[in-house]
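Thread amino acids onto this structure.
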């Protein structure tokens, strides 16, 4: 019953905002996010506790403002994704500005495929959709939503411009096949991991359990790794940025996977420090952190795993 109700609410919102212009949808999304900031005390406390860990020198009022802005951003993200997915291909590209296009084209030209990495930051879902139209489809590694109806809705959006979605079972094998064909594969690298291949790297100076799949694929295949980030611009527009490929560790490095993972995480942290309101502070990224706001508090997602075998 709950799953059906959640789906009906989201579907009703999707239909209601379809005729509205993107700037108006953005304002409505901010209002939705602000509402959740006021009523969702559990995740508000998690966000503030995480911000205290990450920015201990900042004033309490400043951290509270970042948390409030973060909630508003994720309200925008939800509504804008529903709206953006309803646009024509031409209209999707018309609201996007690009930075680093040549880096992508040069990487594809190497013939080894590309590993794209980012986090729950900015408008990552919109960037994947726009990427398929600007360059070519990329496979997106993801975990299924718990609500099967919402999962089907989100998958419909994700594949609407040709991007295949790779779920847990056999994910690495499928990614290897795509890279061998010179295709792109996108991954989020900022979710707490509990699988045996998880490794700890520093994120804001604190150890965080992180997927090693991205680095393992890069080391094994030689595919370049390009971090990507999508930022909001005025008027409901977006700026899609492709960073320089992450420098791989030396072939004789004794801990190449961890070193590569740390370098990718460092790029994400750089952008989060610059625009902290665009990152998901309400997720329990550091499970070793303790405090009244964090003990027994739920994460935004179940602990993630990546299955490697078919």
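Threaded sequence (310 positions):
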């Amino acid at each position: 019953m709950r799953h059906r109700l959640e789906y009906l609410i989201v579907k009703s919102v999707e239909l209601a905002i379809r005729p509205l212009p993107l700037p108006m949808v953005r304002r409505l999304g901010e209002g939705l996010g602000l509402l959740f900031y006021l009523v969702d005390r559990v995740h508000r406390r998690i966000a503030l506790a995480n911000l205290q860990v990450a920015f201990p020198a900042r004033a309490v009022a400043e951290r509270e403002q970042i948390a409030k802005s973060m909630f508003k951003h994720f309200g925008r993200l939800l509504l804008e994704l529903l709206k953006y997915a309803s646009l024509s291909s031409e209209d999707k590209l018309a609201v996007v500005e690009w930075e680093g296009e040549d880096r992508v084209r040069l990487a594809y030209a190497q013939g080894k495929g590309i590993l794209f990495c980012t986090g729950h930051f900015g408008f990552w879902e919109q960037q994947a959709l726009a990427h398929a139209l600007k360059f070519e489809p990329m496979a997106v590694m993801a975990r299924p939503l718990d609500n099967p109806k919402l999962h089907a809705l989100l998958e419909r959006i994700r594949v609407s411009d040709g991007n295949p979605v790779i779920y847990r079972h056999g994910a690495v094998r499928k990614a290897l096949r795509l890279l061998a064909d010179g295709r792109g594969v996108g991954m989020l690298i900022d979710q707490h991991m509990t699988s045996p291949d998880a490794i700890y790297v520093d994120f804001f100076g604190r150890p965080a359990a992180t997927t090693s799949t991205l680095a393992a694929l890069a080391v094994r295949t030689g595919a370049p790794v390009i971090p990507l980030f999508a930022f909001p611009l005025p008027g409901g527009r977006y700026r899609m940025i492709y960073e320089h490929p992450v420098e791989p560790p030396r072939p004789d490095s004794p801990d190449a996977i961890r070193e590569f993972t740390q370098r990718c995480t460092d790029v994400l942290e750089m952008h989060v420090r610059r625009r902290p309101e665009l990152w998901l502070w309400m997720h329990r990224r550091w499970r070793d952190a303790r405090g009244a706001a964090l003990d027994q508090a739920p994460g935004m997602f179940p602990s993630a795993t990546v299955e490697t075998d078919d």
